[in-house]
Amino acid sequence: MGNPDFNVKKATQAAAVLLTEIPTKPIDYYLLLKLLYVADRISLTQTGRFVTTAEPVAMKAGPLPIDVYRCITKQHPSCSFWNEHVHREGYKLSLARDPGTNSLCAYEIAVLRNVARRYGTLHPALLGRLTHTLAEFKKNRVDRGMKAIPTKDILEAVGRKGQAEKIIQEAADRASIRRLFKGARG
Question: What is the pLDDT, as a whole number, of residue 180?
Fold first, then answer.
């Protein structure tokens, strides 16, 4: 489970925007995961794309971007960029080095900043409880392990059921093009 097209640089830069914008430092990694999930959900609603490129999953702890979780816990095979820029001590995260924002567009940075302002000072448990009320989590809830949350379930939950098939196809097309060019660079 996880997105084979996960862009660790983009996810690291997204996390860095949040880590920079939130006044309390260091921040709980559970809070960061929830904030990234909310940002991904908002972006998907408005543009049909996730900010982090991570696969959303349901776990007992609620919905979260699994590829980012695996970078935090050093379980992702491509997390060296993350580890160079994000420092973890126990359950707390801080920015070790600025990764820049060149993989993020202005819209994505604005979404991340707005999410940080709106939810960044909430207690992690409170934001966790709020994400447990989301329709796509309720539909895919698990008591143990994890379960992928299909993009169509998120789109349905945010009122874009009618466009779900088109959005999912466009995302698949973009991923195919990225893989083609990545292979050409060798």
Answer: 72
